[in-house]
Amino acid sequence: MTSKILRSILSVATVVLISSMLVVTGFLYSYFDGVQQTQLKTELNLAAKATEQLGIDYLESLNTDQYRLTWVAPDGTVIFDSEADPATMENHANREEIIEARTYDFGSSTRESSTMMEQTVYEAKSLEDGSVLRISINRATKLMLILGLLQPIGILLIVAIAVSALLARRMAKRVVEPLNNLNLEEPLENEAYEELSPLLHRIHSQQNKIEDQMHILKQKQDEFEQITDNMNEALVLLDRSDRILSINPSARRLFEVQEDCIGQDFLSVDRKQNIREALAQTKTTGHADFCSEIHGKDYQFDLSRIESEGRFLGTVLLAFDVTEQLHAQKQRQEFTANVSHELKTPLQSIIGSAELMENGVVKPEDVPRFVGHIRKEASRLVILIDDIIRLSQLDEQADMPHEDVSLKELATEVCETLSDAAKIKDVALNVEGDLGIIYGVRQLLYEVIYNLCDNAIKYNEKGGKVNIAIHQTPNAVQLKIQDTGIGIPYEHQEKVFNRFYRVDKSHSKQSGGTGLGLSIVKHAVQYHHGKIELDSEPNEGTTITITFDTQVHPL
User: Can 2-148 and 400-549 be said to share one CATH topology?
Assistant: First the structure.
């Protein structure tokens, strides 16, 4: 700031000095020009009087080193000239000052020299006999005068600039010193310049806002630290270069690091390949997850991309201990498989006993009631066991035979199988669309269509409809099953694919449902890398849409 003030003062001083010199020079030139013209006229009047009385003898007797006198006859012929031979001079009748003198008694003119450095001033007076006496003098032009003054002006300018620089430096220091001594911590306590008062008040207001914001940020940071410090899950925040910004105690214990790891590259803390790949995937797709065993425990890692206004800022990593969940899931799978295999043999015995009863082993009056009940319950249990086995196979990703399957052919086959049930409910079945060829497990795909159509019939209104539509594109096959049934209440729609979940247990018992049909559908679709969507309105019907990606083959 001091240098700017110094330059400004020097610039102003220089401009003012030069301008002043030019103005003074112009005034002086004009003043002396007027004095000289007055002197010329005075000399001319004296010479004219003497010439009228004494004639050419007076002119020849003059010694005029400073002036030049010329006597011009009425016809313009030069009679006398103090510097040249009149005989060699041209006629002066057309000279400006001569014409003016004959017309107005006095005449004046100024002519520049060829070099523009000098000019000649002429004054003329008409005599009584009609002749004209002219006096002239050479003088320097304004340009010549300025050039002649360049040296003294230059010296004066240098001295003036030096003095101005000295004074400007002192002045700039005096101006800036109060600014340098401002107390910005307490802006309202300064008494520097009155003009700074609005700025200081603004600074004070900004400081108050910053303090409030810092207080809020500190509160949020404390809340964040308290929450993350008490989390059982491991939480790590990384910047865009994968350097650690924050790591909670659970994460420090998991990765066996101290608090001083802040700022380190996370890959130097955990060098596992799955972490490296997950970080790269998160930057590309925005999310990544994987399971990994650490210290004898199973952890689920979830990584998410952090963005602000479209810019990548970093990554948040969460690690959950899922050891118990995986163990419980494994136990459930083993239990389901074991129970299914253990129950299938005695259930076949129940069916055999029922057949004996039908053959007359039991009292005749009791046979119809027991036979119908045993066969019905035994058949339901067999179906239940088959469903459990099927789910167990899907959970364990069991190896099953794969082939090209037409969903339209399967849908037609399912409709033929369920035609009797549809007639009883007075429900119309319809299949339309493309062949829908996908590479998958025929039995699983058949059960998907069968279970969905079976439910669509069971929970339909009398006189209702079930429409099966297949649409095939180069990359996918879409299966849509739409009914006009009772629909599914909103609060149940997210749970209907869970195992053994029933919206209406009494209705399911009457209809013979096991509670596993939709769960089999869900797992069979997942097995084929498909996506299932449910759209249902109570009392209006349900639409289930399944999309299979034909570019990805099932396991």
Answer: no
Main-chain dihedrals φ then ψ at residue 116, nearest 5 degrees? 65, 10
- Helix 150-180 and helix 2-54, axial crossing angle in degrees, nearest 10: 150
CA atoms within 13 A on the CB side of 44: 27
CA pair distance 232, 425, nearest whole angstrom: 54
CA 184 to chain centre: 34
d(CA 19, CA 160): 13
Side-chain half-sphere CA neighbours of 237 within 13 A: 9
* Class level of CATH domain 231-321: alpha beta
Cα torsion angle, 387, 391, 392, 394, sign: positive
The CA-atom distances, in angstroms, between 78 and each of 75, 102, 133 are: 9, 15, 10
Spatial separation of the C-alpha atoms in residues 304 and 21, rounded to whole Å: 76
pLDDT for 511: 47
Decide: 381 and 354 in contact? Cβ < 8 Å: no
Let me know if domain 400-549 sits in CATH 3.30.450.40. no
* Domain boundaries 2-148, corresponding CATH code: 3.30.450.20
Please list the alpha-helical segments (H only) found in 437-496.
442-458
Per-residue pLDDT at 326 = 83
Number of helical (H) and strand (E) elements in the chain, helices listed first: 16, 17
Domain residue ranges in the chain:
2-148, 231-321, 325-392, 400-549
Taking the chain (555 residues) in consecutive chunks of 10 residues, what is each chunk's mean pLDDT?
Answer: 69 76 72 76 85 83 80 89 86 88 88 71 88 83 65 77 77 72 71 70 82 83 72 86 88 84 85 86 89 86 87 88 81 63 63 70 69 68 72 71 92 92 92 92 90 90 93 92 90 77 53 67 88 90 92 66
* Cα separation, 148 vs 140, whole angstroms: 10
